[in-house]
Amino acid sequence: MSYRPYEPEQEMLLPASLQDWLPKGHLAYFIGDSVDALNLKAFYARYDGGGSRNQPFHPAMMVKVLIYGYATGVFSSRKMERRLHEDLAFRMLGAGNFPKHRTIRDFRALHLKELSDLFVQVVKLAQEMGLVKLGTVAIDGTKIKANASRHKAMSYERMQQAEIELKAQINALLERAKTADAAEADAPEVDIPAEIERREDRLKAITEARQRLEQRQREADIARGRSDDDDRRPRDDGGNPKGGRYKREFGVPEPKAQDNFTDPDSRIMKRAGGGFDASYNAQTAVDGAAHIIVAAELGNNAADVGQLVPMLQAVKDNTGMVPEQALADAGYRSESNFEALADSPTDLVVAMGREGKRCAEIDATAMPRTAAMAAKLQTEEGQTAYRKRKWIAEPPNGWIKSVLGLRQFSLRGLQRVQAEFKLVCLALNLRRMGTLSTA
Q1: DSSP per position, 140-200
Q2: Residue 128: CA atoms inside 13 Å, Cβ hemisphere, count?
């Protein structure tokens, strides 16, 4: 049998070009060219004044590697470091540079704001390519797990119990330290100062978590119209009792309310398949022309209703345009939202309830704009418009979770996670743009 030549030890006469090994139209080329077209002055500004002995890796190279990593589902700095040695596309973007994972991690942490700000530049680039029309925009939310262990969370009720237990243990250890003498010579040897310090640290962490829960509850109670002297009795606008009683004192959380020690900014949210996780609520506004995400925001409130107005404002801020039509599911329905957007040139279509379920009658006197929206959805025009929502809004969320594989954030803290989500969305946009540009 005659085979094609196979000489693993054969060295090349001339240096190989990585560009020759990647096929034309590869995503790495598109991301490299796109980053070169972006304004990276904010990245360079951090290194102004550095001398010849202070030579960091080139910011453009680091940005390309990070974005390509996120666009291909590689979020870990350790995996990026390994890919720079093993993956042709990473090696081509790195151009002979091999930053360690700590360098990649620190660059991302140091430039989180600059990286998230690139999202708007990518949206404008998509506009220039004709991929954003703003004829119809669909808004949707999805819950993404926080980088927080479910075993590092505690309920309000358990916090109160743990504080009492730890204070008793600390007092017992202090008493033992005072009376330690020959009478305890046969007792097991214990490093009492270290044990006291460990318990005090634990007590401090639990106390801070309890105070965070109480502060959130106070803010929620104030939003409901309560005050710290309401004597647990609901009152009307004039301050007069109107019957009934609140279950708990002002600012006291439910016994089952939880706080997480590893990421206190996260909140317990219900996941789609059942159960609960420490999560964040990610919001996207997707343009109907090419499924480009034109606004990406994130918060730690599980409800979507407060995000409709901010998301439409973000679309205008990012693109400089107002969409002709905006679609949203029933999670965004509220009289206050409809009132705030009453004078907007955008044609708003918001569902009244879950598909296939009959909606309760709406009091047109109390909620005139909600009643008007319900009437609009009964028309053929309204139904036709709303049918477009699912195939516009939901695919990008599916791509983020199933194609890129982002089911849990890498970073912790609300501001850091907000920036990471925008980095994910700009990477997905570039991936989508790259696909459409070679189609």
Answers
A1: EEEEEE-S--GGGEEEHHHHHHHHHHHHHHHHHHHHHHHH-SGGGTTSPP--HHHHHHHHH
A2: 9
Query: Which secondary-structure segment (H or E) carries 425?
Result: helix 414-437
Could you read off the pLDDT of 387-399 as tens digits, one per residue? 999 999 999 999 9
For 14-54, list the strands marked E by DSSP.
Answer: none
133-148+265-423, CATH topology level: Nucleotidyltransferase; domain 5 (3.30.420)
For residue 426, how many other CB atoms are within 10 A of its CB?
A: 27
Report whether 293 contacts 284 (CB < 8 A): yes
307 secondary structure, DSSP code: G
Q: What is the pLDDT of residues 359-370, one digit of tens each?
A: 667 888 889 999
Q: According to CATH, where is 3.30.420 located in the chain?
A: 133-148+265-423
Please state the pTM of the whole predicted model.
0.86
| Pairing relationship of beta strands 267-270 and 276-287 according to DSSP bridges | antiparallel
CA atoms within 13 Å, Cβ hemisphere of 131: 22
Tokens 């929502």 sit at which residue? 389
Helices 156-179 and 192-223, axial angle in degrees (round to 10): 150
